[in-house]
Fold:
Amino acid sequence: MSSELVVKMVNTQDMTRVLYLREQSRPVKHVSFDHDGSRLAVSCSDGMVYIYSVSYEEPKLLKRIDGLIKMLETDAEASSRVVWHPDGRAVAAPTATRGQ
Structure:
């Protein structure tokens, strides 16, 4: 089981540019960028999704979404990955309540 609480982002064009996302209180299960790469959704094992803006020098937490995804062990095969709408205005995820 993973216990990673910090997401480390490294710019592949300039390896000295590194961002750390540290707001998560439980282990991270998945990360997904929106289509223009300015926002990142972090799905955690406790059922919380964190939305960050990563277009600044320092990442900015925009929103915490509780109850969108179900709680999962980090080594579980089930997915809690958030998928972005192509225009970035919405996200979709496997729901905690099976869509109810």
About this structure: The mean pLDDT is 86. The first strand starts at residue 7 and ends at 10. The chain has no helices and eight strands.
